[in-house]
Each structure stands twice: as structure tokens, then as C-alpha cells.
DNA sequence: CTCCATAGTCAAGCTGCTTGACCATTTCGT
DNA sequence: ACGAAATGGTCAAGCAGCTTGACTATGGAG
């Protein structure tokens, strides 16, 4: 595969990723969750199962723990999460989503599903599943980083 | 397709896009082009064919023309591009890549090809081509936006 | 020729991130 | 068991990249 083909793939991938992020965020805001940015959503996906500490969140987002703490301040102030004492470590705090935080997460899922449905209209359902499987096989493990 | 499947696809897509961006940028820096950020690369892809004006660049990147002008200042100062008088409009300036700018673009292509080759090792060459084709069919036309 | 739109820049301000410093608690080495 | 080092978290200051607002110079429509 030539370099120019690799660039074409890269460009398409980044364009699709950029549009997806923007569309999800717009969908979330349109559903009444104002002032939310994409980074909040990525934080929520880490907090969703059982909560997380600030340090874990920082690692997930690929930023310093100060930046993560600041982001937590913001979502706590807006009512999407709360800080609880950590059950096993008195230094740490467990950040967990509130009911409003869960509602916002569901809104993001709906918005994502809308975009994916448009892709299915173009590619067909099976192709979209194939896309998911293939991307899943090359997706890295590390922190989620902004595309640029 | 359920919402959770859409989210799985979205997460994989964004993770892959984030890693690709980071790896390309690291590859560019490792090849001796220090102080380059991903945004520079996206600017270069617009400048590459025949140059562009600041306003066109701003539209391509989805930022204000002041921000684009500032970015041009930076790449001009670093020797990757230069401002020339526009052949058809005395208000405008045509921003074109220097030889060093072209070298940097080639370095980005090599770095991208390296990452794509790793994908081919996992998925196979045919699957990667299929990925490119499908992403190309759902890629939007508008400005290239940062993933978040 | 007049009037408005457009290309570009200068200046000021904001936001989200970084680095550096610090305290409280846990964990490790002996 | 105890002191030292590591870890979780926050406060504070600074910075980079972006925004809005204001302005000049040129182009184009009537």
C-alpha cells in the first residue's frame, strides 16, 4: 500500500472521527445538557461503570491529574457527578455520576446511534458491523487522546 | 443496532483516530521536524497542492481567520511556508509550502504508512483497503475538526 | 463613484491545560 | 514497628491557542 493510500485512509478516518465527535456533542447539547464539551463525555465513559478516582480519570484522558481534578470540579458544579470518600483509601475520592450524569450519558448514546444509523443507510448494516469489528481489533489500549 | 453497539463503534473509532494522530505527529517529530503539532499537518494538507489563502485555511481547519493567520505566522517563522502576493487579488496573500514544508509533508506520509502497515499486519491488506473505502464513503465534506 | 463585502492584521481577553509546590495518607524496606 | 518514599489530591501561577472586536486596504455591484 502506497504512502498516498495510507494518507487517504488517515484523512478519511480523522474526518469521520471529527464529525462523529461534533455530532455527538451537538446531540447532547440539543437534548438539554448545555455547556457540555466532548471531553466531558469521555470522562463519563470512564466514570460510568463504578466511578473512578481523579488519578484514574487523568490516565484515561491522557492529561495531568490537576487538569482532571479541574474537570471534575466543573461537572460536580453542574450536577453531573459527585465526590464521595473512597471506600478503601482515605487519601482518594471516588467520583461517581449522579442521575443527571447518567441521563447525559444516555443522551450521548442516542446521539451516537443517530449518526451510526446514517452510516448504515449508506453502507448497510452489515458493513457497519464489520467496521466496528475491524476498528475494535486495531484500537489501542492506552489513554483516549484528542485527535489534535 | 443498539445504542451500546453504536457507542462501541464510536469509542473504537475515536481511539484509533487519536492514536493515529499521535503516532503521525511523533513520527514527524522523530524525523527531525521539531515543534510541529498535528494542526500544522492538517494545514499542510490544504496548502500542499497549490497553496491557499489565510481565509481558505481557516475554513479548512474550522477556526477563525485570526487563528489561522497566527498559525501561518508560526510555520513561516519556522521555515515551512512563505507568504506570497496573490496573483489575482491584491488584498490576499497566497501561502505556499517551502521545500522544508514539503519534506515535512513527506515525513507525515511515511509515518502514516507505518501505522497503516501495522493495521495491515492485524487485519490483512484487503481489510485495510475495505476500511479505507468505507470510511471514504461516510467522510463528510466540511472543515476538518479536532476530535475533541 | 459610492457603498458594501471581503482579505488580512493588531490587540485584548478567555479557557483549558501545564508545571511547581504542598499536605494527607498509604506502602515499603529494614 | 518505624521512618522514608511513594501516592492521591488540591492550590496557585503561567502559558498556548483560540476567541471577539476593531481597524485598514482592496475588490466588486449598482
CATH architecture classification of chain A: Orthogonal Bundle
**CATH topological fold name of chain A:** Arc Repressor Mutant, subunit A
- The global form of chain A is globular
User: What value does the Rg of chain A take, in angstroms?
Assistant: 17 Å
Largest sheet of chain A: 2 strands, antiparallel
Q: Give the number of DSSP strands of chain A.
A: 2
List unreliable stretches of 5+ residues of chain A: none
Helix content of chain A: 55-70%
Order of helices and strands of chain A: HHHHEEHH
Structurally, the number of domains of chain A stands at 1
Based on secondary structure, the structural category of chain A is mainly alpha
Mean pLDDT of chain A: 95
Oligomerization status of the protein chains: homodimer
Task: Give the CA-CA distance, first to last residue of chain A.
Answer: 25 Å
Give the CATH superfamily of chain A: Winged helix-like DNA-binding domain superfamily/Winged helix DNA-binding domain
The top level CATH class name of chain A: Mainly Alpha
What share of residues are in beta strands of chain A? 5-15%
Strand order in space, largest sheet of chain A:
1-2
Number of helices of chain A: 6
Largest interface, Cβ cutoff 8 Å = A-B, 64 and 64 residues
Amino acid at each position: 500500500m502506497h504512502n498516498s493510500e495510507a494518507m487517504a485512509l488517515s484523512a478519511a478516518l480523522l474526518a469521520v472521527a471529527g464529525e462523529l465527535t461534533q455530532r455527538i456533542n451537538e446531540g447532547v447539547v440539543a437534548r438539554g445538557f448545555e455547556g457540555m464539551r466532548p471531553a466531558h463525555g469521555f470522562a463519563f465513559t470512564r466514570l460510568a461503570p463504578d466511578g473512578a478516582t481523579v488519578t484514574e480519570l487523568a490516565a484515561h484522558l491522557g492529561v495531568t491529574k490537576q487538569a482532571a481534578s479541574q474537570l471534575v470540579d466543573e461537572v460536580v458544579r453542574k450536577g453531573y457527578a459527585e465526590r464521595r470518600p473512597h471506600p478503601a483509601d482515605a487519601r482518594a475520592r471516588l467520583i461517581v455520576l449522579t442521575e443527571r450524569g447518567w441521563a447525559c450519558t444516555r443522551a450521548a448514546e442516542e446521539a451516537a446511534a443517530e449518526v451510526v444509523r446514517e452510516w448504515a443507510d449508506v453502507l448497510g448494516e452489515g458493513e457497519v458491523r464489520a467496521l466496528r469489528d475491524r476498528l475494535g481489533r486495531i484500537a489501542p489500549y492506552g489513554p483516549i487522546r484528542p485527535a489534535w
